[in-house]
Amino acid sequence: MKFHFYIFLLVFSIFSFSQAQYEHAWQNLMPQPQDIHLQKGQFVLDSLFTVAIPDTASRRVQIAATKFIRRLTNRTGLFVKHGFPLSLKEVPQANIVVHYNRTGNLQLHEDEAYQLKITAQQINIEAGTDLGVVFAFETLLQLLDNDHEKYFFQNLTISDKPAFTWRGLMIDAARHFQPVAVIKRNLDAMLVAKLNTFHWHLSDDQGFRIAIKAYPQLTQKASDGQFYTQAQIKDVIQYAADRGIRVIPEIDVPGHATALLTALPDIASRKKNYQLQRNAGIFDPTLDPTNPQTYKVLDKIFKEIAGLFPFAYIHIGGDENRGRQWDANPEIQAFMRQKGLKNNHELQTYFNVKLEKILQKYHKKMMGWEEIRTPQMPKTALIHVWRGRAGVSLTKTVKSGYDAVLSNGFYIDLMLPAATHYQTQLYPKQAHLTIDQKAHILGGEATMWSELVTPFTIDSRIWPRTLAIGERLWSNPSGTNLRQMYQRLFAQGYHLEELGITHIKNRGVILRNIAQNQDISTLQALSRLYEPLKGYKRNKAGTEYQSYSPFMLFADACSADAEDALRFGFLVEDYLKQPNSENKRKIVIYLKKWQHFGEALKNLHTNPKLELLRPMSRSLANLAKDLNRLSLEDAIVNQAFVQQLQADYKIAFKAYNDVSLALKKPLNILIKYWLKQKGYNWSE
Ligand code: ACM
After folding, report:
1. Is residue 453 part of a domain?
2. What integer pLDDT is reported at residue 208 of this predicted model?
3. 96 and 200 part of one domain
């Protein structure tokens, strides 16, 4: 973001995440705009506040303007006289005036730029298309500021446009079905992150989730009754289009096909009866690429899909086919010899090329996971990069001449911190890409695989972290000030609740369920210190949890960025920089609190789920007790104490209940620092 300071200089306050406070709303913008000029003065809001849009405004602009007014009044409590947008022709001097040239197309490389000019008299939104207008309203809402007596917008000019044309969120509705309401609220939230592409993963081993008229058995036999009707699909596409979001469907073939083959076993590479998969993992059931009937079926399925989804691309999956059923089938092996197909990659390319022809027939382009990038694959395919070391596969893809969308680094189901995703580079360092090669990188996509998420918990896995990914894709900032990023992430993240996102409130629901409606304040505090196991460690071998397992456990109430652990980390950072008593006091407040956790849980009536948490809270309390002692200036430290500390530390950082204590880094720093003062070394 470029900042320009005109007329007067606003002192950029030192962000203090620990206080969750900020000086000015514009400091908390996320994604950061490309260009911002601050000016003196404010536009002050009152109940006569008006918004005017052109008489010919698209439904997209009408919805955005109306929703903006509603969210603004909900945030301010203002009882405005004009609760709906007015006509620009009739009220050209309205407080917010919107001008744009045309309705945007929901295709690649469309103009999504906007300008926002705030003066004391009027706020101007200008854009080439209505897509820019939608984003301008989101930015303006983030700029809402207040002092003790009024709400206002800081005078400024913003000129903004996205760095990448593909800014996606994938939701896997196959592993756990996600009802329409879940999809819609996440589409609303996508706008806050300025994302524009919803990738709908509609089939996998665990379910086939879209009704296909030609094959009603697909949803009758392979969905447990949990699927979208075509009317629902159309409704979601319209809802997304009204928000400037395009929708790309995915039917995953030829692997990840247990559900499809449960309904249509005749086109499997191994003839048998199939049943829906209830575990997570990579499974063998695979379509038979040598069977002409396979292509007849796919033609009918993709014909219906192409008719439903207006976006130019259809995603055909193509990932993780180990080809075991192909290897074991003598007829398939004979077919390969006859066609001169040397290996399973070549056989899958044979399949993909035929599939691409089917898509072309229905005027669609093919997107697939990076496994489809084989030497014979036409360059018209769009490659979805997700594997390997950072940047390596992306570089290879674009240097081979394919367009690419990056998800490696944006796998939000890994439960990694927002900082990890934020630091993922779209233009890999050391790749030395030419301008043309860079142009092949269309953007990126957060992937919400749903093996371990239900409609109840999915929001807390997507948000707020996806705001950080949104900034990477919209602003592509060159600097990565993580502390400031987290400040903004949490500042904007909680506003998502006004759109119905349940990432905060459902944590309380889970904890109340655990505590059987007793006081959950201790459990809440614990849940802000522990994070679900990262990577895929929570679900060992994919069989610890099944799709019907309870996902209402303590781990489900914890997030990938334990907020208090983050705050504590920043306090320790401050303290090491300035080891004064005030900075120390802030740390000790936490330590004292943690020391009481063991007692606090003891006061609750227990039950089997709550009982599981006791060793965890006790071990944290024991460690905190040691640290409280160590924090004292006159503490007497001896070898026995250090050994006790080491033992307590080890126990506290054991993984309990599929979570781990997120305090490792700051506590290590702190212990090392304090022990050194007493003449002792520390190693974990
Ligand atoms: C994938 O994660 N199997 C694309």
Report:
1. no
2. 98
3. no
Please report whether residue 262 resides in a domain. yes
Global pTM value: 0.96
How far is the centre of ligand 1, averaged over its atoms, from the C-alpha of 496 (Å)?
28
Long-range contacts of 72-78, Cβ-Cβ distance < 8 Å, separation of 24 or more: 72/45, 72/141, 72/144, 74/498, 75/141, 75/144, 75/495, 75/498, 76/45, 76/144, 76/146, 76/151, 78/45, 78/46, 78/47, 78/49, 78/151
- 153 and 203 belong to one structural domain: no
Q: Which atom of ligand 1 is nearest to the CA of 386?
A: 4
Q: Are 174 and 183 in contact (CB under 8 A)?
A: no
* CB of 151 shorter than 6 A to ligand 1: no
* 238 and 324, same domain (yes or no): yes
Structural domain including 642 reads 506-677
Q: How far is the CA of 385 from the centre of ligand 1 (A)?
A: 9
What gap in Å lies between CA 78 and CA 5, rounded to an integer?
31
CATH code for the domain of 73: 3.30.379.10
* Ligand 1 site, residue 536, Cβ cutoff 6 A: no
Residue 527 Cα to ligand 1 midpoint, Å, equals 29
Ligand 1 atom nearest the C-alpha of 411 is 2
Residue 580 pLDDT: 97
Task: Give the pLDDT confidence score for residue 479 in this predicted structure.
Answer: 85
Ligand 1, atom 3, lies closest to the CA of 319
Choose one of 386, 405, 451, 536 to mutate for the ligand 1 pocket test, by most ligand atoms within 8 angstroms of C-beta: 386
Same domain, 95 and 204: no
| Amino acid 8: pLDDT | 36
- The count of structural domains within the chain is 3
**Which parts of the chain sit beneath pLDDT 70?**
1-22
Tokens of 408: 């490696």
Ligand 1 centroid to 408 CA: how many Å? 10
The per-residue b/e assignment along 39-49, b for 16 or more CB within 10 angstroms, e otherwise, is: beebbebeeeb
**Tens digit of pLDDT for each residue in 26-43?**
999 999 999 999 999 999
Task: Tell me, yes or no, whether 202 and 149 share the same domain.
Answer: no
**110 and 209 housed in the same domain:** no
Has 320 been annotated as catalytic?
A: yes
Do residues 94 and 210 share a domain?
no
Considering the domain architecture, whether residues 231 and 132 belong to the same structural domain is answered as: no
Residue nearest to atom 2 of ligand 1 (CA): 386
The string of pLDDT tens digits covering residues 395-429 is 999 999 999 999 999 999 999 999 999 999 999 98
Task: Give the active site residue among 112, 250, 304, 320.
Answer: 320
CATH number at residue 317: 3.20.20.80
pLDDT at 23: 86
Instruction: Please classify residue 421 by burial: count the beta carbons closer than 10 Å to its beta carbon, then call 0-12 exposed, 13-18 middle and 19+ buried.
Output: buried
- Whose CA is closest to atom 1 on ligand 1? 319
- Dist. CA 178–CA 453, nearest whole Å: 9
Would you state the pLDDT for residue 2? 52
